[in-house]
Amino acid sequence: MSNHTPGNWQLGKTGGTVVTDVIPDNALTHTGHADKEYYGGYLIAESVLSMDDAKLIAAAPTMKKQLEQFAMLNENHPDFRAIAGLIISARQILTQLD
Questions:
Q1: Residues 6 or more apart from 83 whose CB is under 8 A from it?
Q2: What is the C-alpha separation between 61 and 19, in angstroms, rounded?
Q3: Which of 27, 41, 62, 86 is most open to solvent, judged by the fewest CB atoms within 10 Å of its CB?
Q4: pLDDT tier at 32 (50, 70, 90 boundaries)?
């Protein structure tokens, strides 16, 4: 799986931004990406026109994690409790996107 910027992705303080609470390993110096005071975290994305798009970007790591867990389930080892938990998590993610 690909390595993305770690941490809890969320909407930033300024319009159209998505930030994380963990400084990225590949953080660019002297670019403003680490201006936590201004953005409300370490910058992932800015100038996102639609708030719905920004919410979707912020939810991407959580959705990726849930998909990875779901993909590990198979017909040889059905775990209905795990499936139910994933369904609940999916509903919570979708609620955050509304």
A1: 73
A2: 12
A3: 27
A4: confident
The one-letter code for the residue type at 38 is Y
Give the span between the Cα atoms of 61 and 25, in whole angstroms: 16
pLDDT of residue 74: 61
43 to 21, 48, 49, 53: CA distances (angstroms): 9, 12, 16, 16
* Predicted TM-score of the model (pTM): 0.72
Q: Are 44 and 57 in contact (CB under 8 A)?
A: yes
Query: Which residue matches tokens 């992932």?
Result: 44
Distance in angstroms (rounded) separating the CA atoms of residues 16 and 65: 24
Work out whether the CA dihedral 14, 56, 4, 45 comes out positive or negative.
Answer: negative
The strand ranges marked E within 1-98 are 10-11, 18-20, 42-45
State the pLDDT confidence band at 76, using cuts at 50, 70 and 90.
low
β pairing state of 18-20 and 10-11: antiparallel
